[in-house]
Amino acid sequence: MAVVFERPHALCDVPLHYCPGCTHGIIHRLVCEVIDEMGIEGDTIGICPVGCSVMAYDYFNCDMIEAPHGRAPAVATGVKRAKPDSFVFTYQGDGDLAAIGTAETVHAATRGENIVVIFVNNTTYGMTGGQMAPTTLPGQITQTTPYGRDPKIQGYPVRVCEMLSTLSGTALAQRVSVDSVPHIREAKKAIRKAFENQKEKRGFSIVEVLSTCPTNWGLSPIEALDRLREEMIPYYPLGVYKDITAKEGE
Amino acid sequence: MNYEIVLAGFGGQGILFAGKVLAYAGLLDGKEVSWLPSYGPEMRGGTANCSVCVSDEPIGSPLILDPQVLVAMNTPSFEKFINSVKPGGKVFVDSSMVDVKTDRTDIDVYYVPATQLATDNNMNGMANIILLGKLIKETEMFTLEQMEAGIRKTVPARKADLIDVNINAVKLGMAQ
Amino acid sequence: MERSLMKGNEALAEAAMRAGCKCFFGYPITPQTEISAYLAKKMASAGGLFLQAESEVAAINMVLGAASTGTRVMTSSSSPGISLKSEGISYIAGSDLPCVIINVQRGGPGLGGIQPSQADYWQATKGLGHGDFHVLVFAPASVQEMVDMVVRAFDKADEYRMPAMILADGLLGQMMEPVTFPEIKDNAPEKPWATNGHKNKREHNIINSLYLKPDVLENSVVERFERYKKIEETETDAECYLCDDADIVVCAFGATARVAKSAVNHAREKGIKAGLFRPKTLWPFPVKEINEASKNAKVLLSVEMSMGQMVDDIKLAINCSKPVEFYGRTGGVIPKPTEILAEIEKLGGVK
Fold first, then answer.
1. In terms of CATH, what superfamily is A24-35+44-243?
2. Taking the model in full, what pTM does it have?
3. For position A248, what pLDDT does the model report?
4. C176 to chain B: nearest residue by CA?
C-alpha cells in the first residue's frame, strides 16, 4: 500500500502531552516538516521555553535544549554564536516571549540574531492553569482577570509582530494561524521562509502562530477554533509585517 | 629595597601613568611590584591616586595607607595624604599646583614647580615625570637608565614619539 | 619566562583565552569591566566571540546556550550582577553544563558600593541559585592566581560538568602585578553530550534541568552529589604559612589574606606565634587542610571583608574543637594590617 501521509522524521514517535484540541501538535508538525524538507535535522538545535511546550525536547528529533522562562532567545544566541553553521530555533509561548522574555526577544531581534523564533500565541498561560498573558484580549476572562481584562487596570495586549517589525535586525515578522487548512498551509510557508532566511544568514525571523487553548478557554476544540477566528484574528491581523526579501511594491 | 609610594592628584595629571612607570622600572629590575589605582565614578578632573609597592619581598597589602614616599600634584591630595606619610618619609610636591606647605619636620618635603617647569621647557603634561626625576634623585630608588627602561615599557606603542620627551622630563626633574 | 605587568582583570581575560575560552558574554559593571573591554578587543582576532548582552540575565543564558554546544565559555560580573545571573547558574548546574563565572566582588547589599568586598562568600559557596547544587569556587589572592585559577576553573568545570566560579574582588581586579603566562593548553575533553547537531550519526541529545517525576529528579541530584563528594575529597586547595607552630592561626582568603599575611609577619616580629591559613578553594572548603594547619593552635581568627561569612565554615570544618574568632570590615573598607595585628595581639594575650 502506498504511504501518503506519515510522521515527519524530525518529530519523535512519542505521545504528546498536549490537551485534546490544542494546536501545538499541528505547529510542531509544521516545524518538523520544514526541517525534513530542508534536510537539516542533523544540524538543527531547538530551544524549548517554559510553558506548555516545556517538554518539546522530547518531541523533536534534533538536539534540544530547555531554557529558563523567557530566556530562549538568549540561549539560542549562545548556541548560534558558538556554532554559526547550525540551524537554531526557539519555540515559545506568549507569556515566555512577550512578558518575562521581552528583553531577550527584542534584543535578539535588534541584534539580527540569525535564528528562527516560533511564537505560539494563545492569549493565556496554559501550563499554569490559564492566567492572564501579555496577549490576553481586552475583556477576556482568565484566572487572574476573573472580571475580564480591563485595560484601565491590566493595560493592553502586546502585538509582537508589529513591535518587532520596527527593528532593523528583523528579517521576517509574520503572523499566521492554524485554524483552517488554508491557514495551516500559509503557516508552513512562513516557517519555511524563516528557516530559509537563517540558511541565507538574513537575520532574525519570527513566525507568530495564533493558537488555541480549549482547556483554559473553557471551550470545545471546535468552539476554540471559532474564537480564534472571530476574536483573535481581528485583534491580531494575519499577515507579513516585515519581510526583507519582499520586493518593493509587492 | 622596600618602597611604599602614594601618588595623588587630579585625574588627567598622569598620576596612574607615573605610578606605572615606577612599577615597570621595578619589574625590569627584578623586584616584586604592585600598582593599585583608586577607582570610582570620576574619570576626568576628579581626584586620582594610586599605591605603588616596589620590594625585594613578596608584596602583602597593595593598598598603602602610610607611605614612605608621597607624590602630591594638587592641594586636596596634599592635604589628604601629608599626615599619613611615615616619619622619615619623602614628599614630592608640584608647587605650581599646591599653594600650601606642611608644618611637619619629621619628613623631607621637596617643593618642585613641576607644572611651571614643564611649560617653560615645552613639556606640557610632563609635570608628573619631572616629579619622578626628582623622586629618584632624592630616594636613589632607580637610576636614570632604569627609569628610561620603565618609560619605554609604559608608553603605549601609539604614543612612542613621546618616549624621548618623557626621558628628558626625568632628567629635568633630576636637575632640580 | 617573561614577567609582564597586568591588571588582575586583564590577566584573567588573557588566561581565559589561552585556556580555550571561545565565547564570552557579559554586561558592564564596575569593577570588572576591564575583562569585557580586554576580550572585546582580542577575542575576534583570536577566532573567538565577545558579545555584550542586554542584561546579566541574558548573558548567563547565552552562556547556557554556548556551553550546551560543548564550547568553552565564560561570563563575568560583580556582586549585583551575579545576583541577576543566579537563575541561569541554577539552570546550568541542573543541566550539568561546564562554564566559568567571574565575580569581582564589590560591597553590598543592594547597589552597595564599588569598592572591594568579600560579602558574596555565602552566595558563592551556599546560595548561588535555587535548588540542591554547588559550583566550584576558587579564591585568587594575586594577579598570578587570577591567571592560574581561571585555567584550572575551565579544566575542572569540564572534568566535573559543572560551573566554576572565580571569587575575586575589586582590589584583585584593579591592581597590577607581575604575571607570567605558563604554557596554557586548551584541555577541553570530548563532550559527547553536547547539543551541537547530531549530524544523523547519533540519537538526539537533550540539555535539560526539568524532571517532573520526583524519584527521577532525586536520582539526578543524588548522582550530582556523588560527584560533589569526590570533589570534596580531591579538589581542595589551601596555603599554609607559618602554621606548624602557630598558637594563633589567622584564616583569610583573597585580597584579605595578603593583608593578613603582613599582619602575621608583624606578629612574628613581636614574638607572637601567628600563622596564616588561606583557602584557595572555598567550595570545596579545605577541611582536611585547616585541621592540619590548626592542629597546634589555641585559637583561630577569621578575617574577612564582610560581617563574617567564612567563619561559619571554619567552625564546621574543625567541628568547633577550638575557639574561632572573627574580625572584619565591610562595605568596601579594606582591613589594615595594624587592625589585624591588634586582633592577633589581643588573642595572644598582649595588652
1. Thiamin diphosphate (ThDP)-binding fold, Pyr/PP domains (3.40.50.970)
2. 0.95
3. 56
4. B35
